């Protein structure tokens, strides 16, 4: 073993230990959100803070920087998308980002995020934006300082976006998302003006929680989520987390008078979980075993939730089972009526309740506003007005109150600027990948009708999951579809599906 | 703040960090035994080993030794049972024990325990003691080395016992336990010869798991286990663990054709949990917030399981609820028949299935044998013969095979020598404390009949829980009951109860 290889081993041992700490952090959070008795919260915060400190020390250990500097010039770094090249390139990048932020700023950001979320929750409850404004101003200022510390060429939005979508540029996504907006607004209008409305009340009948759980698990297993290496629990706000290789936890919630919430949460989180389960376990803790970006992660959840789970072919297979699971609610419902109801499109105020068409406009509004805040094109004081204006302009709806408007999301209070667009990127990538899968795998609808989902799962594993962070999101799109990220595949799929449903 | 107080703060911060690591270890184990998907096991072992390493480094940090040496001479250490005196005394003691063991021996013991448990499991399955003998010989040898490293005056059993029962002596418990044996053997014989047998088949009827869960939770809540600071889950081998202040997890298992297993596990673990919940939360991580010893912990579980949960008065309150919860199984059963069945006493081979009378003889056998092994009075090769002889002598039963005999317990394979007697000490202390509570609190049976358990819980909290490790087990017994540890209270209670039940 030569000296480079020894140094490489030091690096991988070091970051695998950091990954153990991160996996423990995930367990602390999973348990807090699914099992922990309420009174345990204070100590749980102490535990999480202590582990975060250990993890931060690992990530910013100067020895790691020295090892990575040494390796950057070595033959091990030469092949950028080889195993060692991928590991060295990404770790170097991450180490630089971590160490460029002054410790004092990191601590101020952490404190402001904790305080911000508390103030936000109270302000939202009181429907009072003014109470939230000062801490949001502070947070915007701190995020600008963070962007300055990280460095940028054109916009402070770039280095913040990079936390979630490594290597992506604000300019590029602004371009793609504005194309998306320009195509979506008229589609949403056309649907609204079609005068057609499915009967969604059938989804508001009684759906017993235990039947929802077993039906949801049946569907998640059918699309190849592996329950020997994962599980499903209930929580307040559904999420998926990876506690380690071969241990992926899905969560959902049960509303006995709204079918869609639980079921599509399960499919969505199972999509995330299938990606996590497809990452190479032996690379766990290294960039070669990590997901590409939040946008790519979201593309996997959206693909199973929307392209698959809201398709007619999916329900041609599953509707009889649904009728068996919920005989009282669905016994007298036709498959087509059900298919229409789960694909109801209507402009609304609340992002998390939005359908797959209008959802992207909610994201666009947030992206445009947070970008303007960071680029000093908009003041926090003017944010509510700008919010309402965009909702009227893009979706044709007016927020009567701030709690259902500008105060509805936790993200800004927690300092998550640059996060929102990844939701829309997920929708774009999912459409683009699914379109390619249809070309590569023949008649997918026919497979779904037979309850066969493993070809698609294998295709995703082969094309995306197994590579870890070897390729960036943009590179993956080019490699898999031969095209850069674009609005076209999504718009094309939505136009066909909803054109037929709404007679456009 | 003077220099001693500053040093004291360094010490408490340091050990509170070690306690966070220990609490994380508990969470890793709780999750592994209740929730984790099977495939997650390999990585879970990596996580646990890494955290154990961090914890060990904390506990043996030379700075801690220096601080404690400095404090040992300070005024803060003067009052042995004051807050600071208790903390300094116990930490010093623990630090000395930890650092007296050579690192190489610690690692050998860890490896032998992992290997030992694997070999034991296979040997038990194959009913083959010879396959287990070599690793057990190695383990006995390592434990003797450990005892030598820790130092002892009369027997190598002393320093090992001290891990579980700090400050207790082998000589004393050998004396107390032999008195117990001499009184128990004739009582067990008299019961066996009485010719009376309750009809236990009523406990083997169908008890649906969900009804067992809700009935068990109802009982645990009634005896004042606080479910806002704890929860109940299912597992293979029931246990209780404390994940932090205000977060105590009980577990049980459900056998739909054996009422006692689940229900008395819940009461037993809730007894442990009530102790954990009664420890002062603000002292969590310090000796002033820790349980006294395993024997005292077991006294709390046994008191609620046996003295309370197997009493006639308890069922005078709960039997109507039990009939409601299990109408098919208990609708035609009288309370007295039920009371007789849950108090069936019969000599048997398996410790974990033993009743409250014969249980102690199982423990005595193990204590006498493991003491003899460590004191070179018995060779591992002769262990199976000695085991069978004692079972015949004390309980009048013969083990037909090793898996139901000398191979039935995991403890020795894991290196837990000195652990077994704490089970019997728990029974002795529980009887002694309960006898005193009856004197202090008036007619406890009348309170139980009315479903009132809070006086007893408060008494335990006041007398035992709130003190943490301020007093040793022996000191507690003297303070609370005015008497040293003895077999008398237990024998007296068992004689009255079973004399009446079996017409002795």
Automatic annotation (TrEMBL), chains A, B:
Name recorded for this polypeptide: Metal-dependent carboxypeptidase
Q: What class of enzyme is it?
A: hydrolase
The alphabetized UniProt keywords are: Carboxypeptidase, Hydrolase, Metal-binding, Metalloprotease, Protease, Zinc
Q: Which CDD domains match?
A: M32_Taq
A GO molecular-function descriptor: metal ion binding
Function per UniProt = Broad specificity carboxypetidase that releases amino acids sequentially from the C-terminus, including neutral, aromatic, polar and basic residues.
Q: Which residues form a coiled coil?
A: none
Which family is this sequence assigned to? Belongs to the peptidase M32 family.
Q: What reaction(s) does this enzyme catalyze? A: Release of a C-terminal amino acid with broad specificity, except for -Pro
A GO biological-process term: proteolysis
InterPro entries cross-referenced by the UniProt entry:
Peptidase_M32_Taq
Q: Which organism is it from?
A: Bythopirellula goksoeyrii
The active site annotation covers: 269
């Amino acid at each position: 073993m030569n000296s480079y290889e020894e140094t490489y081993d030091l690096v991988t041992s070091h970051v695998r230990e950091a990954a153990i700490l991160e996996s423990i952090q995930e367990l602390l959070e999973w348990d807090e959100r699914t099992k922990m008795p309420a009174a345990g919260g204070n100590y749980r915060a102490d535990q999480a803070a202590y582990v975060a400190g250990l993890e931060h020390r690992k990530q910013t250990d100067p020895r790691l920087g020295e090892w990575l500097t040494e390796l950057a010039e070595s033959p091990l770094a030469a092949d950028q998308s080889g195993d060692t090249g991928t590991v060295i390139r990404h770790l170097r990048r991450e180490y630089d980002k971590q160490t460029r932020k002054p410790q004092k700023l990191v601590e101020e950001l952490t404190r402001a995020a904790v305080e911000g979320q508390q103030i936000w929750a109270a302000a939202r409850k009181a429907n009072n934006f003014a109470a939230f404004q000062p801490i949001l101003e502070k947070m915007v200022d701190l995020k600008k300082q963070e962007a300055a510390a990280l460095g940028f060429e054109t916009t402070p939005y770039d280095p913040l976006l990079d936390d979630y979508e490594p290597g992506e540029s604000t300019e590029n996504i602004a371009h793609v998302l504005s194309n998306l907006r320009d195509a979506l607004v008229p589609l949403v209008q056309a649907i609204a003006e079609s005068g057609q409305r499915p009967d969604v009340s059938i989804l508001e009948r009684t759906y017993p929680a235990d039947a929802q759980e077993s039906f949801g698990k049946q569907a998640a297993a059918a699309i190849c989520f592996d329950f020997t290496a994962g599980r499903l629990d209930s929580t307040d706000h559904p999420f998926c987390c990876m506690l380690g290789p071969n241990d992926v936890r899905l969560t959902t919630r049960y509303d006995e008078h709204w079918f869609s919430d639980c079921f599509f949460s399960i499919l969505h989180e199972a999509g995330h979980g299938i990606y996590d389960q497809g990452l190479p376990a032996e690379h766990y803790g290294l960039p070669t075993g990590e997901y590409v970006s939040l946008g790519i992660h979201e593309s996997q959840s959206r693909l199973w939730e929307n392209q698959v789970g809201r398709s007619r072919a999916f329900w041609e297979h599953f509707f009889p089972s649904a009728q068996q699971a919920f005989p009282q609610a669905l016994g007298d419902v036709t498959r087509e009526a059900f298919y229409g109801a789960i694909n109801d499109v209507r402009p609304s105020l609340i992002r998390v309740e939005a359908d797959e068409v209008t959802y992207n406009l909610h994201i666009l509004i947030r992206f445009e506003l947070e970008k303007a805040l960071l680029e000093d094109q908009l003041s926090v004081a003017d944010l509510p007005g700008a919010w309402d204006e965009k909702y009227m302009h893009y979706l044709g709806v007016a927020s009567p109150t701030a709690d259902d408007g500008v105060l509805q999301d936790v993200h800004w209070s927690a300092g998550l600027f640059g996060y929102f667009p990844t939701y829309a990127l997920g929708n774009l990538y999912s459409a683009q990948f699914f379109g390619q899968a249809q070309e590569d795998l023949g008649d997918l609808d026919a497979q779904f009708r037979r309850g066969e989902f493993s070809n698609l799962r294998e295709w995703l594993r082969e094309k995306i999951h197994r590579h870890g962070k070897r390729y960036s999101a943009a590179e993956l799109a080019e490699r898999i579809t031969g095209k850069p990220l674009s609005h076209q595949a999504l718009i094309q799929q939505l136009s066909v599906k909803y054109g037929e449903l709404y007679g456009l």
